[in-house]
Amino acid sequence: MDPIVLLDNLWVMIGFILVILMQGGFILLEAGSTRMKNAGHIAGKTIFTLGISSLVFWAVGYGFIYGNDVGGIIGTSNFFYGDASTADGLTPAVDFIFQLAFAAIALTIAFGGFAERAKLAAYVVFAILFSAIVYPLVAHWIWGGGWISGLGKQDFAGSTVVHLTGAMGALAATILLKPRIGKYNKDGSVNNLPGHNQVFTALGVLFLWVGWFGFNGASTFGVADGFFGYVAMNTQLAAAAGAFAALLIAWAVLGKADVPSMLNGALAGLVAITASCAFVAPWASVVIGAIGGMICFFSVRFFEKRNIDDPIFALSVHGMAGAWGTISTGFFATPQLAEMNGGRAGLFYGGGLTQLGVQIISVVACGLFAFIASYILLLITKSIIGGLRVSEEEEIMGLDMSEHGAYGYPENVQPTTDNPSERTGA
Amino acid sequence: MSNSSFSQTQGFSAEPSFKSYEEIKKDKEEKMDDLAGEPVKLNEAHDKWISETVTLAVHHHQSERGDLPAHFAFFLMGSAGRQEQAKFSDQDHGIVFEGTDDEHQDYFLGLGAEIREGMAIVGYPRCEGLVMASHKRWCHGVEGWKKQVDRWIEADEWGPFRHLLTFIDARTLVGEDELLEDVKEHVFEQAGRREVLKRLSENTAYLHKGLNAFGQLLPEEKGQYAGSMHIKDVGFFPYVHALRLLAIYEGIHASSTIERIRQVSEKHSYVKGKDVHFKNLLELRASFSRKQNVYEDVHYVPVQELSKTQKSELKSALKEGKHLFQHTKKIMESGDF
Q1: Domain span at B125
Q2: Chain B closest CA to A274's CA: distance in Å?
Q3: Which site from A70, A363, A405, B133 is most exposed, i.e. has the minimal number of CB atoms within 10 Å?
Q4: pLDDT tens profile B250-306
Q5: Among B248, B239, B259, which residue's Cα sits nearest to residue B149?
């Protein structure tokens, strides 16, 4: 194998490892953002749903995305994938495993909407359905030669495919599951249910930030021209701008330098630049990241006021910032980079409204599909397992105990109702 | 000058107007709704209820422990000391007596405990920070007080400075005001030294934000008081802290913030007119007194229920308070008086 081709393979393999390690970032982010009594559950479910999504992706997911296209809607071959060939390019196995990591990330994002109140069985069933149907269809439409890729859609590493799709799954879940006990008062006013460890949350963001260099950087699928460095630079600038802008807007609006807002802003910058990192100039990356951070800040407040309880902020960080990031290339894509990576130049570079229109259509179409499909699949899940949500008693005692029989922090959690019969005499 | 309604002697002959703490409580509950909307009358009434409670406590204590061994002054601190109490208020008080701690502290601590329990029955919750005459820190003879104040200043630490700032607002309610005045003379002399004033200013550094960068009010976002502003922290405190520092500097013994504003305005023009804003804050809080059912309620004002004028007055008060606080701290800490 040619040394450069070998390096291409190695680079994508490193990308796969970095993206898989992002699951560690999600474990810390989600556990830190939720309460102590659910920490072991949150961490553990991330690992086993990674397992489920991997198996489903191998069995049918990859085939639905990259198999022979039928009507621009779905792929129909390469199920139970097992191509061991070593073609003179990216080997099929390396390509497969890199793609698998993205599918797993989308699922983890969707599970943000489940946090602190969904049954373990709901995770299992929905993991299979989402990984088999929702993600593969959107990925096929945009990356697998489907109808949107035919329009010239620009989504370099998945602002729509991964983040928006995952967030729409989370939105469907938050609506069906309803808010956590204690989040809202009867008069509709909001209570704070703060995460138990802000250090975990910040470390989670840092893990994700580092992992993003695999997510975006390795989406170049090669090292030959060194373009991955440019992609990484734009990624870094957008994340930095997102964190900074979110901190400033939180400070200005709330009168305090709110740490969770800033952390969400960093992630929103990363999510936003995911689509556009290969299409825009560095200055535009700063603008895209900064706007992503600010959109995320206002979005969190918007959803919270509408009784949509999103403990991990998946809707804002991945949904709103994902939509913005996708649309942003319609404004900022430069002619040179569009020519190099596909699609057309953005509005600000004389490209007119064409690319912007394509980006908006894809966001609306993929967002709507992912939401409706997830909603229906969750209803199916609900009927299969007899309800998505744990009982009030189980929620109060915490999912560590109710779903797994042991607390993540056994010495620190004071169970309130772990043995209700002793309290009620029942 | 004596603020007492009776002539105090070592035998303490004044007769209480009420026979029990429960009777005072009843009187308080009956009259509260009529008074709560008027800050000045409300504070006069609080003074009356507390002084009646103290009078009764003295009688109870004398019957148990014998006649008062010395003259004393019972004084209030905190919002009661400044005559800025709301409908509900917790206890903040102390005792200064004639003679030494060795001779009489035990007796007056007992009296402090009787007062504490009596006030609790009347409806003034015990102070969680133990700022009560039943605690050794807040019950001394004149010389004992002076020595303690010297120790607080010498310690040069955050906690003792907090105690000193609390004491600055002391106001005699029952007994011989000369005793408190004697201690206050000493305190103001010591605390008014430039380096001490600078440290006291540094001690009161935290300003709760009431307005955001766009000039909008910042109510609580979540929880039981979502939509309401903590008017004590964001509204009153900047004025209280600034005027206390200025009072120390100018040697003004008056404890009420409005009186302090009046007295320092001559020399410090930037303070002039600030009493209007402070009165607005007092009246704003009082206007919601009917919605205040427990102690914590009195600190909150529901922003959505404010009229346009009230909102505008509140914004102005917060803006002016911030300026007053920051400017005062600046001059105190730079020494550029």
Answers
A1: 21-191
A2: 32
A3: A405
A4: 999 999 999 999 999 989 999 999 999 999 999 999 988 877 778 788 889 999 999
A5: B248
